[in-house]
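A quick aside before the break. I want you to see a complete sequence-to-structure record at least once, exactly as it would be stored in a machine-readable document. Don't worry about memorizing anything.
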Amino acid sequence: MNLLAIKKKNKKPKGKLGKLERKQELAGYSFVSIWIIGMLVFTLIPMCQSFYYMWFKIKARNGLQFTYVGTSNITQIWIEDPDFIQQIASYVWQTLLQVPIIVVFALIIAIMLNGKINFRGIFRLIFFLPVIIVSGPVMNMLVSEGAASIPALNTQAVVSAFDMFLPTAIAQQLGTLFGNMIMTLWYSGVQILIFLSALQKIDPGLYEAAKMDGGSDWECFWKITLPTIKPMILINAVYTVIFLSSNEQNQLINLIKTAMFSATAERGYGYASAMAWIYSILVTIIVLIFFALLGSKKDVYDRMVKKRKRLEIKEERIARRVERRSVRNARKIERQRQKGMFRTYDGSGDY
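That is the input. The structure line, written in tokens, reads:
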């Protein structure tokens, strides 16, 4: 039996879905349809509308009056709006500094909560509570009362210490980060849960085998834990970027809202839409940067598996080609035999 016949024998027949499978399929489509409808109504349609508004000056007089201005809104932002440019630069520095700190802090806390400690469930609840608290007006109230900073920390001294070794712009951003350290660490609740779920899925037998071979806890972390949860690091980094970018404490969001509801002739919906699209492109670039840095590369085993699959496909293609050629040759010989071009040998020396 050749390779092609073996493949055909092992291939599962394609039949119709059963009644239970159809119900499960319909249930899955029903759940996904809710997200698709929400995506179309609340995200995709407003995005297209915002992209259309970006090319117009819009005045609210007896309805919306549109005046096409092309790229005038974009050039006006970069030339005549220094506050937006300054906030953009501040946002980039803060995001690039805060995201690694939040992700590393979440990983450390998740490793601690994954250990065998007393009252582990209570500690998990404590670290997840800020996810509920830091939303809406509660967060604004806490920030206004100074709960997001450490009163005993001298921020100016931190800036002066960093200014001796780093550029002034970076030192100031580090000082701002230390001044809002409590609020920064409050943003790590969801990341802790993601890391915790990933750590609980690691097979304990891997650690036991490593310990039997003389591996230390530090080596187990770098050789087992970190490579296993590497995809979760990327997910948490992207989630943190999106959360920081859409948070109510983000000054760029407030700046765009102010421009949208401004009563001046230079601003309005069109101007705010241009600001929002510039901001969204910047956020996309930052996400791509973290994806390039943390994107999981295929290991040696995955490359060997893919190489083996390509070799099997090549062998199947060769076997199929040989089988077709054998069929053609057999048909050709049969046609020639029918035409009398071949005579049968009778074994006596005569044909």
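Two observations worth writing down. The chain has a mean pLDDT of 79. The domain at 82-297 is CATH 1.10.3720.10 (MetI-like fold). We'll return to this after the break.
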